[in-house]
Amino acid sequence: MDNKRFFLATLLSVFLLFAFEYFTPKKETQQTTTQVKQEQTKSLDQKVGKLPKQEVVDNSGGPEIRIPIDANAVKGSLNLKGALLDDLVLKNYRETIKPNSPLVRVLSGVQSKDPNYVQTGWMNAEHDTTKLPDVNSVWKTDQKELTPEHPVTLTWDNGQGVLFEKTISIDKDYMFKFEQSVKNTSNKPVSVFFYGRVSRGYTPKELSGYLVHDGPIGIVDHRLEQSSYKDIRNDSKAPTDVAWSKNTTGGWAGITDKYWLTAIVPQQDKNVSVSYGFVPDEDQSNNTNADGVEKGTYQVSFTSRQAMVVAPGETVSTFGHVFSGAKVVELLNHYEKEYHIPDFWKAVDFGWFAFLTYPIFIVLDWLNNFWGNFGLALLTFTLIVKAVFYPLASKQFHSMGKMKSLQPKMKEIREKYKDDQQLMNQQMMSLYKTQGVNPASGCLPILIQIPIFWCLYKDLYVTIEMRHAPFFGWIHDLSAPDPTNIFNLFGLLPFDPSAISPFLHVGIWPLIFGLTMFVQQKLNPAVLDPVQKKMFQFMPIIFTVVLATQPAGLVIYYSWNNTLTALQQFVIQKRMEAKAKKAKNAKNKTKTAKG
């Protein structure tokens, strides 16, 4: 493979690195035609009456009453008004790498700036008039604090002989268990549907676009279902405010961010209906935020498809789980096995190539546990990739070596037939055939490794295990760009050039990458065409600028990969030269002997 094809293939690999996710369809099965959505909503209404409505909070009843939540990984409080899970922060994660940075908040109250909360409850079946607790009902509790060792039981009496009860427990990480029961001491049966709902009363300012999904997500009827905030807003129509709904048995659904997830996990043997919806704010005079997005509340709800009929003197119970925390892959896998939650690991957006991205992450995670450093894990993984693809790389370098030896003859053909392009190409192909060279064979190793490059990029971008993961020296976060910048002399000048333009941010590791690419380029066959030669001289600079704003871990991987490739290529070329010299000496000896 000549230099032109080599660098065109490299350019193609980087282009595909950023284009794969944009041009490939999202792995979701959401049906979007109006007719289908209307039929689904109609079917759901027939089964459960009405979907749980967004209730108006009454603030005239005095201050909120809360129970503290304190577990190994989270802390917060439970709101007794409405029995809302609406206050939760993560003890082990901060907003930035600074030690005094605020802890990450995953749940917040209805009246907060960014409402994000979980509500569970009951709805009346058709013709049932039982008074039910709502978002303004104040519950009684038997505990002063919710901890892994001490679950709390909340009770609410409707004053009509029906007692509603919720027992809430939490494990040492991020999983809550909600056990709900209805005790009927009245003289008539009670018929209700239970529901669980995740509500988000704002649209995140920084949507992740095509690189990672955020918004409604779930495994419904054994299939991954994802929706964007925009689609939910556009498709939710009054009076149901439902954008999409589907019946299923078990599964899970909620609202995800890049690293965090809040999801409802119903009892896995129960038939339920899942709905994604958006309820616009009632205040139409100021119904858009600063970004021009309509204000309202996004909802992901589970509703039972069969009514709980509680006869006089009976108690009927059900249970479910709520996950609210960090999307740690190992922990998601643990919950998947313990509670039989289908494909819970898919809460992490491994993308269209998850069948490859996920195993690569598992290998990286194992190497990280072995070394205690994700940077070293990346370097080790590169060695593994190099070992696996060594036969192909060896073939590539041998092909490049043969091409290099043919440079004088190729130059002669170019000059001789420069006025007849067709004849020149014919002579070139004849030369390749005579010498047993396939100019395209060297492209194969690069093309095969493109998916691996992309999967590494996804793993660095979407997995929380690599968030704030340090390397050595100045790299404190492998998932963020190199913080140094040559344009302010690596911090000596007191200004940030990237504020002027993102292209004015080039750190030390991107420079190292450019240098390794330049060295690798020098080991390749020389380009004969002056225009091409000039273009390829700028390739290291172009690639350096392109990768400068990408995760430092990816740049380190590329730099290390270039270094190993250059060393590998140098060794193989020296062996080929030694072999050629040996063959030449043997040929000379033969001629001398014959003479």
TrEMBL record:
The chain crosses the membrane at residues 6-23, 344-364, 370-393, 437-457, 499-519, 540-560. HAMAP family: YidC_type1 (MF_01810). Its main location: membrane. PANTHER family: CYTOCHROME C OXIDASE ASSEMBLY PROTEIN COX18, MITOCHONDRIAL, OXA1. GO terms for biological process: protein insertion into membrane; protein transport. It is found in: Cell inner membrane; Cell membrane. GO terms for cellular component: plasma membrane. Keywords: Cell membrane, Chaperone, Membrane, Protein transport, Transmembrane, Transmembrane helix, Transport. Residues 66-362 form the Membrane insertase YidC N-terminal domain. CDD domains: 5TM_YidC_Alb3, EcYidC-like_peri. The gene is yidC. It comes from Commensalibacter intestini. InterPro entries: Membr_insert_YidC (IPR019998), Membr_insert_YidC_N (IPR028053), YidC/ALB3/OXA1/COX18 (IPR001708), YidC/Oxa/ALB_C (IPR028055), YidC_ALB_C (IPR047196), YidC_periplasmic_sf (IPR038221). GO terms for molecular function: membrane insertase activity. Interacts with the Sec translocase complex via SecD. Specifically interacts with transmembrane segments of nascent integral membrane proteins during membrane integration. This is Membrane protein insertase YidC.
